[in-house]
Amino acid sequence: MPYTYDPQNIFARILRGEIPNRTILDSAHTLAFHDINPAAPVHVLVIPKGPYVTYDDFSANASAEELVDFHRTLAKVCEMVGVVPGQGYRAITNAGEHGMQEVPHFHMHVLGGKLMGPLVQR
Ligand code: AMP
User: Is the peptide bond prior to 85 cis by the omega test (within 30 degrees of 0)?
Assistant: First the structure.
């Protein structure tokens, strides 16, 4: 098990209802909400409710039900915020130090509403 989950991280606290959030969709295993500091007109975070640190942790260790629920919720959210059908979006996830992950609870950013520019600096 390469990861230790910190139950005091801010998204764990959101999931426990200790911190408010602007929810878009709340499903059995997944929560989608607006990023508090949006980097684009659309900036949504989609997170599993289970204690997974990174995308690879989630992909390796979540149940099939959680995996399907996460991805189906992400797809529904893309429609709800108007990027699908529409002008598209960028879905990104940061992991660990080199990924510059700030919150150690796996989350997918869905960004859109403007041209997002190059993927990374070269
Ligand atoms: P990352 O760098 O990929 O870990 O991204 C963490 C994201 O969480 C950033 O875009 C923050 O703006 C966002 N964030 C931090 N605290 C909150 C919060 N309380 N509610 C919503 N988004 C948050």
Answer: yes
